[in-house]
Amino acid sequence: MSRRAQSNSSETRRRLVESATEEFAEKGYDGASLRQICSKAGVTTGALYFFYENKEGLFRQVIAPVTDAVHKLFESSASEGAAEVDTTFPWGGDADYVVSSGLLDIFYSNRLTVGILVGNRENRVVKEIFDEATAALESGVREYMTAGGHTPSPNSGFIVSWLAEAELHTLVSILENDETRDEAEHHMQTVIRFTHGGMEALLKGYGA
Question: Residue 139 belongs to what domain range?
Fold first, then answer.
């Protein structure tokens, strides 16, 4: 393929993703029209199917900047936590503050895309992403519970799941309020401090 053809292909993909982002943000996944997306992008439906197998494939491309960045952040945090673990929830040291700040950086730099994710939580693709995020948070909770020499009890699974889901729900609530980055940071730090104290109390009284 010539450089000009590659350039044209890149530009076509860019226009499609830009148009699709606006369409998904305005109408949601179910209401979005591929025909309208192509019309706004100034391309044929044939061009769309050359790059993407279906509507879901295009949707995944639209949300990729956020999901890819979050995956990298979690992977990096998990690696750092494995290298030097202490009893601070959930990734060791002050990493929980670093992770929350990193997440907010990603989200507030991609507000339109985040709005698409939050507004389409019943979508199968989005559910998969939220399930992955919950699993990563659960892993962090378990790491915290074992780092201080605690042996998880048979009943600790409920606490692990509850804390992970509560953190994710809190983050979504902050994003839905459409607050400033500084306000969101303040709320996240408050939640983290509460979680620190709560985890310590639970581990002492719950027999984890």
Answer: 63-205
